[in-house]
Amino acid sequence: MNKNFNFSTSFRNSSLVKSVIDEIQKTITKKWTLMEICGGQTHAIMQYGLDQILPKELELVHGPGCPVCVTPLGQIDRAHAIAILPNVIFCTFGDMLRVPGSSVDLFTLRARGAQIKIVYSPLDAVKIAQENPDKQVVFFAIGFETTVPANATSVLQAKALGLKNFSVLVSQVSVPPAMNAILNSPLNRVQAFLAAGHVCAVMGYWEYHPIAQKYHVPIVVTGFEPLDLLQGILKAIQQLEKSEFFVENAYTRAVSEAGNQVAQRIINQIFEPCDRNWRGIGIIPMSGLGLRKEYEEFNAENRFQVGHIMTQESEICIAGEILQGLKKPVQCPAFRKICSPTNPLGAPMVSSEGTCSAYYRYAINVEED
Ligand code: SF4
Hints:
Helix 7 runs parallel beside helix 8. This protein has a five-stranded parallel sheet with strand order 2-1-7-8-9. The protein has a four-stranded parallel sheet with strand order 4-3-5-6, with helices on both faces. The protein has helices at residues 14-27, 39-47, 50-53, 67-70, 73-83, 106-111, 122-131, 148-161, 175-184, 197-203, 209-215, 226-241, 261-270, 300-304, 319-323, 347-350, 355-362, and strands at 32-38, 58-65, 88-92, 116-118, 136-143, 166-172, 192-196, 219-222, 247-249, 271-278, 282-291. The chain is built from 17 helices and eleven strands. The longest helix has 16 residues, at 226-241.
């Protein structure tokens, strides 16, 4: 790296950004469709207008990497059923409060008197359980591999403390099975992936080699700044133009092939792969991380017997197609009309990482898409 490179400013430096865009322009000769997996990357692309300055031959579609968006409706309704119980303190990250369930959201339930607390770490929920021995404290353990180590640590800590009033409502998911599902779909349009740098910082990228080889797709591990994203796009285009398909790391300052093995050990100690329902997409085999038998005592679904809840999705929301890269938010009839961040019909409009929310906040020239 150039010795004049400044880590706090250069990733947004306009002349460096322009040089990579010029390189992409020189490299690209055909139409290609790339998917960024991560909702944080989607927001960065829209916020910095990268979609507006890339060559027209390149289409970016947005993947299912927003954890709030893919949490299935059934699990949201289960959260609601638990949160309204009189003896429960329900703890969650703030993003989940406005996610609509079949009838209401957690925000509404809190206004009606349910004890719902926003926490910044699952360990805060463990502390609340220690401080409230006469209450059942439940943490809504959603997310991708980035949040799972902290969720696992909370279970370990609760066990070490002998807490009988702490449990987790689990809806955790893994990225590689979702990539497989997207590529297996007969409707698939994705020809290359930008893999999420923060997930790979935890998990490494060794799991992606078989995917690149099986489906002939370049997979480039990519960060979140404009220069990171453009370099990831450039590397993917270079591979596509040469008919090469392998995993490449464009985020070496944070990611190694093996990832964080301490975090992986903690994950594997508490959780194991299981089938998981993704909101709008359906069940993806072995795409979830559920509690191992040895830790079943911390499973809120069993503790509160909310396993058999029936759900009712919005008939208008096309989030499932958006999360698979098949449609864009502007193709949803509700977008900006009856669906907005203050009145969301679906999770992608609620979450700070949701694609619909990114389009609502940042998109220009999208009506003619
Ligand atoms: S704009 Fe609203 S209704 Fe349409 S897909 Fe997005 S969240 Fe669903």
